[in-house]
Amino acid sequence: MLEKLVEIAWEFWAVLSEMAPYLLFGFFVAGLLSVLISAQRVERHLGGKGFWPVLKAAAFGVPLPLCSCGVIPVSASLRRHGASKGATASFLISTPQTGVDSILVTYSLLGGVFALFRPIAALISGVIGGLLVSLFDRGREAREIDDSARAQPPATVTGNNRFIEAMKYGFVTLPADIGRALLVGLIVAAAISAAIPENYFADVLPPGIGQILILMLAGIPVYVCATASVPIAFALIGTGVSPGAAFAFLMTGPATNAATIATIWKVMGRRTALLYLLTMAGAALAGGLLLDQFLTARQVHAHVGHGGWMIPPLVNHLSAGALLALLAWALAGPLVRRFRPAAQPAVSNGQTTTVLRIDGMTCTHCANSVRRALQECPGVKTADVDLTGNRATVVGADYDVSGLVQAVERLGYSARAMDETA
C-alpha cells in the first residue's frame, strides 16, 4: 500500500513539474488578456447578424480562460448587451474548451500538434454551433436584448493599474478558480498512471470510433476544467487510449456537463441547449477521428520524452514548487475571508441596503457577472458580491428588489432577498 502511494506521489510530481513552467507563463498571459479582452470589449463586436459576429465571438472565446460555469453568465450578459443569439452561442461553445493556460499545458504534456489542434477545433465548433443557432433558433431575438443594460458605459482601468489588475487576475483570481480542479485532475492522473498498466485500455476498449464514443460519452455528464483535464488525458493515453479518444474527452469534459446544459436550457432556451449539445458531440467525434489520422500515442510520449531538453530539470522542479505554493495561497484565501468580519457598506441618508442570497456561483467570473448585472439595475449605487458566502449586498435608492432578483436569475442563478434595511 505504501509503495503504491509513493508511486502515485512520484507520478503526481512528474506531471506537475512537466507542466508547471508552461502553466505559470499561461497565468501571466491570461492576466494580460483579462484586461485586453474584457467582456465589455467583446460586446462591441458581437452585434448584428450573419457570419462575421459568429466568427469574432468564437475567436474572442478561444484564448479566454473561462470555465463552463463562468462562461454562462458572461454569455448571458453579452446577450443582454446586444450580441446576437448565434454569436452568443458561438462564444458559449468555443470558450470553455480551451484557454491560453490550457493550450500551454497541452503543449507541455501532449505536444505541439495536440496544442494546435485544440484551439482550432474550438474555433470551428464555435462557428458551426453559432451558425446552427442563427439558422434554427431565431425566435425572441429582439425581445431578449436589454437596451438599458447596453447603455451602461464600461468602467475603465488605465496605466499601472491595468498591469496590477492583470497580475492579480493571472496569479490570484485564476489559480483560485481552477486550483481545486487542477489538483484533483493531477491526483486522478497520477492514480491512473500508477494503478493501470501501460496499454491496458488498448486491449479493453474497442479501437477507432468505439473508443472515441466511449470517452466522449464519459466526458459529457461530468465536469473537469480545460486545464485540469489535460493531465487526465495524458494519463489515459499512457494506458492505451488513442489521442483522438483523449481529445474527445478533452473537448466534452470542460464544455458539457449536466449543470451546464440545464443552465443553458434555462438562459438560452431548449433549442439552443440541444444545438449546443449536438455541436459538441459532433465536433468531438469528428475531431477525434481526424486527430487519430495523423497523431499516435507513441508521438505524444516522444514529445514528453525528448521535449524536456527545452527547460532544464531544475527549472521544472522550482516551477512545480512555485505552482504548488501559488495554488495553496489562492485556495487558502476563501477560508481566510470566511472567518474575517465582512466590511459594512457605506450607506447615505435615503439609501437602503438589500442582501440577496444567490445560489449557483462557483468562480470569480460568476461573481463578476452578478456584480455587473446588479450595478446596471436602476437606483443601485454599489453591489458587492461575496462568492464564499453566496450573497450580494446592494446599496442604493428607489431600486426594485424584484428587479434585482430578476437580473441575477437572467444569468442562470437562483436568488432571493434575505434582508433589507434603511
Set out the fold topology.
Elements: H1 2-36, H2 39-43, H3 51-61, H4 68-80, H5 85-94, H6 100-110, H7 112-136, H8 147-150, H9 160-195, H10 200-204, H11 209-219, H12 229-238, H13 243-255, H14 258-268, H15 270-294, H16 297-307, H17 313-339, E1 352-359, H18 364-375, E2 380-386, E3 391-396, H19 401-409, E4 414-421
Antiparallel strand pairs: 1-3, 1-4, 2-3
Structural classification:
alpha+beta
Main β-sheet description: 4 strands, antiparallel
Q: Which percent range fits the helix content? A: 55-70%
Range of strand content: 5-15%
Q: What general outline do the C-alpha atoms trace? A: globular
Protein architecture, described:
The chain contains 19 helices and four strands. Strand 2 (380-386) and strand 3 form a beta hairpin. The longest helix has 36 residues, at 160-195. It is α+β, with helices and mostly antiparallel strands. It is globular and about 70 Å long. The chain has a four-stranded antiparallel β-sheet, with helices on one face. The N and C termini lie far apart (62 Å). Helix 1 (2-36) packs antiparallel against helix 6, helix 11 (209-219) runs parallel beside helix 13 (243-255) and helix 13 runs antiparallel to helix 15. It has two domains: 2-321, no CATH class; 352-421, Alpha-Beta Plaits (2-Layer Sandwich).
